[in-house]
Amino acid sequence: RKEVEQDPGPFNVPEGATVAFNCTYSNSASQSFFWYRQDCRKEPKLLMSVYSSGNEDGRFTAQLNRASQYISLLIRDSKLSDSATYLCVVTKAGTALIFGKGTTLSVSS
Amino acid sequence: DTAVSQTPKYLVTQMGNDKSIKCEQNLGHDTMYWYKQDSKKFLKIMFSYNNKELIINETVPNRFSPKSPDKAHLNLHINSLELGDSAVYFCASSRRPSGTNYNEQFFGPGTRLTVL
Known about the structure:
The complex is a heterodimer. Chain A contains no helices and eleven strands. Chain A is an all-beta fold.
């Protein structure tokens, strides 16, 4: 079983749609959780951290369920510029990032 | 500009050759990393250095040897290149993580290595 699993998609949605991505992780000792965004042929960039209480950043909402070892990302009112691959990431031993394979989102007009 | 930079951006070479990729960061970070992203887009940690000391060394063939001449640089040397080494290699840096505190990692633009 992979350490971090995501539905690879692709998710094809129209502008304005709400889309949700899910992720599960296998190591219950994982300490920190994130969503990174990677545009085509670019480097990954931190989108947001994920906290147990849930957190929101504009149109993006992240949730963490430690008991189920489940992380989610909700994007409301999708924009064309949201088209990218979204990487679910957990930390191992506080240093290395463990990446999921990513979920590809394509937003069309 | 403050950033993590890598050279070269593209590297095409023959099997069996030896090549190096360089990484530099001017963010004042003391921890640097190498990641490999393969053709299936799976991004995986290879090495991590803190203050020139190797702290993470994942299961990577010993043909790969990282070298950190100082805190701002982490180079990756690859001997006897194989077809399976073709991938995008990303360098990253962060302040040193302490305990359970995570410090954001900033990635370089990547080096696309193609082995023929």
